[in-house]
């Protein structure tokens, strides 16, 4: 196995990690920003007020995007297993 193959696999893994984490992170970012804006407008500074809606929104994002996330992970795993013969030099 040469270094280009290792770098390619690493790059694909990092791209997959970014794709899988994006729905959850973007949801938490948007909800956190909206709650922070609401807190600054109303002058309510309660920590749990930002945590609970974020947790609920992230759970909903996982429910909505969960099937796609699993499908992407399985496709990546199948692609890695399909690459094993070529990585070992078998063709």
TrEMBL record:
The chain crosses the membrane at residues 20-39, 51-70. Belongs to the FliQ/MopD/SpaQ family. It is found in: Cell membrane; Bacterial flagellum basal body. Its main location: membrane. Pfam families: Bac_export_3 (PF01313). InterPro entries: Bac_export_3, FliQ. The keyword Iron-sulfur does not apply. One of its GO terms (biological process) is protein secretion. It comes from Cryobacterium melibiosiphilum. It is a multi-pass membrane protein. Role in flagellar biosynthesis. One of its GO terms (cellular component) is bacterial-type flagellum basal body. This is Flagellar biosynthetic protein FliQ. Keywords: Bacterial flagellum, Cell membrane, Cell projection, Cilium, Flagellum, Membrane, Transmembrane, Transmembrane helix. It comes from the Bacteria.
């Amino acid at each position: 196995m040469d270094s280009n193959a290792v770098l390619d696999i690493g790059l694909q893994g990092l791209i997959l990690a970014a794709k899988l984490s994006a729905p959850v992170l973007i949801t938490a970012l948007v909800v956190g920003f909206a709650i922070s804006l609401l807190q600054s407008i109303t002058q309510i500074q309660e920590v749990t007020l930002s945590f609970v809606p974020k947790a609920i929104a992230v759970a909903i994002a996982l429910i909505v995007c969960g099937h796609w996330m699993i499908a992407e992970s399985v496709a990546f795993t199948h692609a890695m297993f399909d690459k094993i013969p070529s990585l070992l030099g078998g063709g």
